Amino acid sequence: MTESTDITGLSPSEMLCATLEDAGATAVLGEALQVAGLDSPPDTREELVRFLDGPLQRALIGTLHPASATHVIETLRERLAAVDQSGTRMKKTPDKDVDPELVLTDSMAATVPPPANPRAAEAYDDLVSGAIHSRVTPAWGIRTVDPDAEPGTTVWVIISNSLELQHLALQKAPGNVDVVSASSMAVLNGALKRSESKASAVVLDAEDPSVKLDRAIAALTTDALDMRVIVWRMTAERRARLIEAIPHAATWLPCEAEVTPAEIMQLLGL
Predict the structure, then answer these.
(1) pTM strictly above 0.85
(2) What is the pLDDT averaged over residues 205-223?
């Protein structure tokens, strides 16, 4: 990201737009505002900081590499502090529980609490620290927010015999998400037909699928289907052959065998 933007005289909103433009992520602002239910960026420092650390950070991670997204947020924090100390002053709300100075200077906090399970906690630490991103498995790109979804149309379809994955999905899914364990092709096809939300997702376990892998892949490549798909535990060679046969499969998010079910939940947005 370019570091040369002159923020002298810019309002906080103008500074925000200029920084996102430097990062090539101007489209993210509209998405973050929609998720936050806002028409424009907040005009108080405390609310703007919450917007940066919440909706904007999540939208950036859904668009950029997490390291790049973190860099953008840190740059915004620094520039916000500079704008606040310059001639352009922000409105201030009455003191609340959080000290705004601490909010501006603390290191980036994780967006979700760590799991209680020790094995899952190790995976979580890798995800938060960025260690996971030195592996082949990415942890960004899947968004779960769909404010326009009708009840019953957001579905997580689990095509796996992994009981741990099934139980975590049932335990962690938001209240408006139905989790379907595809125990047969009839169940799988029924779940896919129900999905009308952009927040729906499929987890396909290539190593131990709950239905025949070739039939599951065929069901996921119909023209009418528009769902995000995570392919778990598929070898690189097999995935290359799959993409050669079905180019659309290149849009599916690959996860190697070392990825844990807890990390799969992170990919789904938890």
Answers:
(1) no
(2) 92
